[in-house]
Amino acid sequence: MLGVMSSSTSLYQRRRLATAEEIAAIPWLHSLLPAERERAIAALQVTEACAGEYVCHAGKSVKYWWGLIDGLLKMSADNSDGLTMTFAGVPPGGWFGEGTCLKREPYRYNIQALRKSVLAGISLETFQWLLDNSLAFNRFIMNQLNERLAQFIAAREIDRISNPDVRVARSLAALFNPVLYPAVGSVLRITQQELAYLVGLSRQRVNEALATLEAHGALKVEYGGLRVLDLQALREGLFTSIKRTPAASVA
To answer: Cyclic nucleotide-binding domain spans which residues (predicted)?
Structure first.
């Protein structure tokens, strides 16, 4: 169970203005017209979440549209039996919650920081203004929603997969989605324990799965992360059992 680090201040109290480097790393800003971009940048707020802290909580009202600058997040929900289903991991560069912002409804899921994370957000009012005034922003949101739908359908499929190697492969492929997470590239900074939280397996079993995927040439375990060599192979998840040696630790 991921322990929650206590903090004496809230995400809102820790907010600050975005730096020039952080602004440059936000993909959708570059497609806006000058006046639209200026308004969006003026509304940007940056905050920091501790490991284990919730950024969004099921049942709470939406106030911001969020994006991850650095760190790693988990999107999940608890069912009536008290079991947790993980919908997706959110690596750096990912923006999330646009569906909730569009409907102005309470969150139906939780977003939790798996490690110390830096987030950017714009207010719900600015989000709605951009929808009303920016064609480029509408296109970005439409693409986000389309990819998110496919991601959640895949998450349901992954949740029913009994083969641990395939579960890890498909879960990793989702983290390398170039539309939702353009900042990831071919290397993702993630530990085996963090991946275990996202996949719903033990750290030991994740280690074994990574060794299998590495032996098949789909990825390479590097210090502090994973390098994808064959994204399509991870998406298809067609891996046969072979004699494995433990993967090198990414932690």
So the answer is: 28-148
Alpha-carbon span 227 to 215, nearest angstrom: 13
Coarse DSSP helix, strand, coil percentages of the chain, rounded to the nearest 5 percent: 40, 20, 40
pTM of the predicted structure, to 2 decimals: 0.84
The full set of domains in the chain, from first to last, is: 11-160 (2.60.120.10), 162-241 (1.10.10.10)
Per-residue DSSP letters for 145-212? HHHHHHHHHHHHHHHT---HHHHHHHHHHHHT-TTT-TT-TTEE---HHHHHHHHTS-HHHHHHHHHH
Other beta carbons within 10 Å of 182: 14
pLDDT, tens digit (0-9, with 9 covering 90-100), for 146-197: 998 888 777 777 767 778 898 999 999 999 998 899 889 889 999 999 999 9
